[in-house]
Here is the input.
Amino acid sequence: MEKRALIAVGLSIIVLVLFSYFMPSPAPVRPPVAPVTTNQAQPTKKEAEASPQTPERPRQTPTVSILDKDIIVDTDLYTALISTKGGTVKSWKLKKYTDAAGAPLDMVVYKESMRPFTVAPDNIPWAEAAGYGYSADASGITLTGKDESKTLTLTYTALDGKKIIKAIKFTNGKYELGSEISVEGYKGYTLYMGESFGSLTEKAKKGYGFTGPITLVDGEKQKDNPEKIAAQKEYKGKQGWTGITDKYFMAIIAPDAGIDAVVGKGTTDWGYTGVKVGSPKESFLIFIGPKEYDILKTLDRGLEKAVDFGWFTFIAKPVFIALKFFFGLVHNYGWAIIIITVIIKLIFAPLTHKSQKSMKRLQKLQPHMAELKEKYKGDPQKMNMEMMDLYKKHKVNPMGGCLPMVIQIPVFVALYNVLNNSIELRHAPFMWWLTDLSAKDPYYILPILMGVSMLVMQKMTPTSLDSTQNRIMMVMPVVMTFMFINLPCGLVLYFTISNLLSMAQQVYINKYSKE
Here is the structure.
């Protein structure tokens, strides 16, 4: 039964890995986007009414002649470029996170698509609103003091006197912003987070996790695969937020009063989100940065729910807390993973010990079981009855080796999600050639060691399976090695250490067990 339990665990792993591989986030593909023409006349009312009003496709019409000027906002955590053209974000570089080239990570990926912070008044397409010329009350903002704050106010004034006013409050040392947007002469507007934000400037790969629009409405999380969005969706509720997320980073809008989120495909395969406002004025919390659970939790807006801990969150959270605690002691996430692995093994040691002893007793009954199978091969019902009598006589539980392993599966799933989705492991080094615990082993040494350890462990573990089943089981280490070969090496490290500890425990039982 121990081998069958291993099959169950193995299949659980395969399901998780296959889900990541075959249900990936869509890879961002830069689409051809027609440039917005400047220095041309304002479109007539007739042209505006004839143009498409949906935000999914930009309207190719002339825009107001404007000066595209960049306002630099520099803080301890990021450097942002705010353009007077549309009052939108052109660049948002995080100082504490780097891309594959080692440069500060720019979260604005699609430079020519729907830009973040586009405000489109009712019945105005976003592409037209993105061309509005704004004036600014500052040429730049630099924040250096602790919790120092400054507000940038951008104002658009239409030819007929209508206005859009964006006030954005930046605070040093914080990824969140305060924003107040008001309109004059319009009934309402839509604030788009756009489809530009993201962090997969490194090459997008399968298994990277979900990428696309994410929305929280009254505590319920919605993820929309941009490839499957046929038309703009709308989510309404009393409280919530919406934005763009990937595995490690996100950019979101959280209105202070209610949520009326719109989600669509847009002009790229990334997807866009926005918030509809039916009044002339609204305040927002904006967050642009890493999905660090502790930071998001302190904002008290439910943003921490964007961190995907999976099916067994109630187990994953304590594991995550423990991971950060031990990192605080050893200052290395690789060693923190090893410590957690040892602790988990110690917690389950009594169950594992009982399981291995049960398998050893069951193995001793193999000759008797083979005799019963031969004697009653024509009468399965009688054979099963005799088998149960045999187990009862020798006080052996055929499920004794399997159940302890099954109980551990939720812990495994929770740990998998913690190690696979925690930004703390991104670019975190361990030792020697393992310089990034969130990336695959570049030389495939660790996956091979894991496969070998799994094979040795199978050889050491008592089994009640027949020779054919045993040969099938020998394929499992090979399958698992190939499944893990491209997974983050932090995960592979856990399984390798776990296998080594199981081998040590089996050696102890084989040597000292009297049963």
Summary: The radius of gyration is 29 Å. Confidence is low (pLDDT under 50) at residues 1-8, 17-65, 201-207. The chain has two domains: 68-306, 313-512. The longest strand covers residues 89-98.
